[in-house]
UniProtKB/TrEMBL annotation:
May act as a catecholamine-responsive trans-membrane electron transporter. Keywords: Electron transport, Iron, Membrane, Metal-binding, Signal, Transmembrane, Transmembrane helix, Transport. The keyword Electron transport applies. The chain crosses the membrane at residues 214-232, 244-265, 285-302, 323-342, 348-372. One of its GO terms (molecular function) is metal ion binding. This is Cytochrome b561 and DOMON domain-containing protein. Heme b binds at H213, H249, H282, H318. It comes from Urochloa decumbens.
Amino acid sequence: MAAAALIALVLTLLAAASPPPAQAAGGSGRCAGETFSSNRAYASCSDLPRLGASVHWTYDRASGDLSVAFVASPAAPGGWVAWGLNPSGDGMPGAQALVAGPFGSAGAWAVRTYNISGYALGAPGPIAFPASGLAAELGTDGRARVYGTLSLGAYGGGVLNQVWQVGAAVSGGNPAPHAMGADNLAAKAKLDLLRDTSTAAGADSATRKRQIHGVLNAVSWGVLLPTGAIFARYLKTFRSADPAWFYLHVTCQLAGYGVGVSGWATGINLGRESVGVTYADHRNIGIAVFALGTLQVLALFLRPKKEHKYRAYWNAYHHSVGYAVIVLGIVNIFKGMGILGVEQRWRTAYIAAVCVLVIAAATLEAVTWGVVVRRRKAEGKPFGGGGANGHLPH
């Protein structure tokens, strides 16, 4: 049963990290039927989840230029729309925005750029991504279309944070504050240029590498190692499972470490290929997990015999470092999901997998404590810190 559950969890994670079907040039949702003036056309598009907006783009990986069109309806006639990228977070502060509205003479639509430093729009000015070809128009259908080309440079090598917004009015030539409804506050998402742009095989290759990196690390640090720890902590309480528990534990941990090393290596390679794109927390935690995992493997060669006076110290080290690896590994898996922009359903699937492991551990904890207590009473031995042969206290 344990093996079947493990296989099911692994298959779930593999499905979660499998690349989605390739998006055809022009997209596959409502945005696919969009047309633009001056014969503008874009390789990809996405219907955004809030405010009825969509974004269309063509990304030139060689030059780092992103040609974009943003489509949305102002919150009211005479209102404004905005779209931007945020290189430092996933909200409004730090966004490099294109804001369009009736800013021109006689109410003509125009585009301004804003480098937003807080929760106030501030004054228009240059943004971090040099912008060209800016234009805007209000269609007869009441929707605004904003055009421009942003020079992303190295920032275009990964998953981008995009934000967008609509407002109801322009006051004194400036956009009035937008509403604070649920959709307005949640108008943010990921934009994966490498996955969604259908122009180059190199982009598909980079996406596949990131998917493989995620699968390997989720299966190793996120499933195999916790499963191996469960075998070691609980099965050894049952005398009939000795020494099977030890071989199951070692098999899971060595397999998990081997797969984890592969995942770590793919991450290092991705870092080298993504010059200027750094996910510091994810990288640093990954390095820590790999280093601690390597120490665990090396510690096997220094494992004292059961009777040795230093065995208790070795056990304390082995258990504490092992649990640290598991916790940090799971935390980093969720950070990686955020970076990849994994859909919520796959995030939920992994949460369910972790819950299965937690429930299994909690159930076995109760059962094995009962076994140890009954065994101690039957043997007439006190239950305390010296219960090494009960196996459960670590």
